[in-house]
Design brief:
There is one protein chain. Helix 2 runs antiparallel to helix 3, helix 5 packs antiparallel against helix 6 and helix 10 packs antiparallel against helix 11. The radius of gyration is 44 Å and the shape is rod-shaped. About 80% of the residues lie in helices and about 0% in strands. The chain is built from 11 helices and no strands. The longest helix has about 55 residues. With about 290 residues, the chain is mostly helical.
């Protein structure tokens, strides 16, 4: 009889240890179920019902452990050593089985709770989007306006330039808008396939875009390359002026004056615009 009593106490201790995680699982589930009551979507209600069902299962397991329902399935007829050992083994097996069930249900509860939280977040976003659409003229109107705005934007945006003349035109437009990066990209793309006057114009545009970005050393080289490509063309005086302006911006007055001297010697009767710019740069450089 003493052995049986000791075994029973041990079994009850195991059961008490088993009920603690069950109570913790129940306490974990309850707040999540309460928070999920605001979910009105069909998926959220389904998940809520599954969590409630699992909670009921946990309650049943807890009630079974507390009411002594975990007694051995076989009747103890005598306090013999063999019967006592069988009872202990049966109790341990039953406790292990219930612990495994508890772990599985806890995992299912965690998964369902995560799914419910995702459904709640998605529903909240849909409600917020609907409210925003209504505050800005209605959801239908906003949805109808979006394709129209896209079509207008596509119509207003010109096709991407690919030929040298189209690239030059786009680059000059960007230069007027002081978009020097776009102007440089178009000029560089045009130089790859441009020939003749187009190539000189592309080189000159490249130099202008570099000067606009205040990269004066590179712009001076680019202007001089434009001059060397066509030293007798109408673009040559402007290229030499660009060299002088870039050198003055760098503070190299001596080299700027040399470029102005080359301009005066090779183009003694330049256009009035070029002559006025040369006089201004001569004064800034202190050229003799």
């Amino acid at each position: 009889m003493k052995r049986l009593s000791i075994t029973s106490v041990t079994a009850k201790g195991r059961m008490a240890a088993f009920c603690v995680p069950l109570l913790a699982a129940t306490a974990f589930v309850a707040p999540n179920v309460a928070n999920a009551q605001d979910v009105s979507s069909r998926e959220g209600l389904a998940l809520q019902n599954q969590i409630l069902a699992l909670k009921q299962q946990l309650d049943q397991v807890q009630s079974a452990g507390g009411s002594g329902a975990l007694a051995a399935p076989s009747t103890v007829s005598a306090p013999s050593g063999g019967s006592n050992g069988d009872l202990t083994a049966q109790l341990l097996e039953r406790v292990n089985t219930l612990e495994q069930q508890q772990r599985e249900m806890r995992g299912e509860i965690d998964q369902l709770t995560n799914d419910l939280q995702k459904q709640t977040a998605a529903l909240s976003k849909q409600v917020s989007d609907a409210q925003f659409a209504m505050q800005n003229g209605g959801g239908g109107g906003a949805a109808a306006a979006a394709p129209a705005a896209t079509a207008e934007t596509a119509a207003a945006s010109p096709a991407k330039a690919t030929t040298p003349d189209a690239l030059l035109a786009a680059g000059k437009t960007a230069l007027k808008q002081r978009d020097y990066t776009t102007a440089y990209d178009n000029a560089e793309a045009a130089l790859k396939n441009a020939k003749g006057n187009f190539k000189v114009d592309a080189q000159f545009l490249l130099a202008q875009s570099l000067a606009g970005q205040k990269q004066y050393r590179q712009s001076a080289v680019a202007y001089y390359d434009a001059y060397r490509q066509a030293p007798k063309s109408a673009r040559a005086p402007d290229a030499l002026l660009g060299v002088s302006a870039s050198l003055l911006a760098m503070g190299d007055k001596k080299a700027a004056c040399q470029a102005l001297g080359k301009l005066k010697s090779e183009f003694p009767t330049p256009a009035p615009r070029v002559a006025r710019a040369a006089e201004s740069y001569t004064a800034k450089g202190g050229c003799s």
